[in-house]
Amino acid sequence: MSVSHDDLLALLQARHSCREFAPRPLETGMLEALEAAFSQAPQAGGARHLACTFITDADTIRELADAGRRAFAGLCNEIPSAFAREETRRYGENFFWFADAPALAVVTCRKPPAFLRVAMGDKAALLWGGELSGAMAAFALLLAAQTLGLGACCLTGPLIVWREMETRLAIPKHDNLVLLAALGHRKDKT
Ligand SMILES: Cc1cc2nc3c(=O)[nH]c(=O)nc-3n(C[C@H](O)[C@H](O)[C@H](O)COP(=O)(O)O)c2cc1C
User: Fold this and answer.
1) Given this model, what pLDDT does residue 54 score?
2) pLDDT at 1 over 90
3) Which neighbouring-strand residues pair with 106?
């Protein structure tokens, strides 16, 4: 293992969220390289309950962001208190900007098994660790994106309308959507 602490620190320091992308697709092999980093992360129970799939079709990404924005507007409109409605609307301002991202990583994990849900109720997810494993793997993916010269941004905001997102992304009933990550070449690097 030849990675020095200084190199690791430099990589961590260089990584910053990117929210504006050049209109340019990822080069061949980049998604495979990101997936390779994702799959090296530790997973709770040593299991393989995580999945990362990539969307690169521009129309599909735009439709997902637009559908999320619409569902979020509907959710806000149903909030009776004007104050809470406005707060929620403001809270969601940074959730659906990813319409123009050249690629979107979709991270899912298997739901906790029935026996754990019976034993632990709502806390089963803590022991199962699916979401936390997803977060660790997503961080590996973000760092890999940095090494490839790509910009990236982790997104859990869109999960505010998780039913809409899971339906549109055709997430199987036995899985949870953990997060999305927008990916592409940074706009300032064209
Ligand atoms: C779990 C997680 C969820 C995030 N969700 C969003 C999001 O929905 N929208 C967004 O614009 N940024 C999102 N971010 C990016 C953070 O805002 C960003 O990481 C933070 O402001 C620190 O900036 P940096 O990544 O440039 O260091 C998320 C980050 C994490 C770790």
Assistant:
1) 98
2) no
3) 53, 180
Mutation pick for ligand 1 pocket among 155, 161, 162, 178 (CB with most ligand atoms within 8 Å): 155
Q: Is 125 domain-assigned?
A: yes
* CB-CB contact of 151 with 21 (8 Å): yes
Domain presence at residue 39: yes
pTM: 0.95
Count helices and strands (H / E) in the chain. Answer: 8, 4
The arrangement of strands across the sheet holding 103-110 comes to 50-55, 103-110, 175-184, 151-155
Number of domains in the chain: 1
Q: State residue 119 phi and psi, 5-degree precision.
A: -70, -35
Q: Is 91 in the pocket of ligand 1 (CB under 6 A)?
A: no
167 lines ligand 1 (CB under 6 A): no
Is residue 129 predicted with pLDDT exceeding 90? yes
Residue 148's Cβ-count burial label (10 Å; 0-12, 13-18, 19+) is: middle
CATH of the domain at 184: 3.40.109.10
Average per-residue pLDDT in the chain?
A: 95
Is 69's pLDDT higher than 60? yes
Nearest-angstrom CA–CA distance, 108 and 124: 17
Q: Is residue 139 predicted with pLDDT exceeding 70?
A: yes
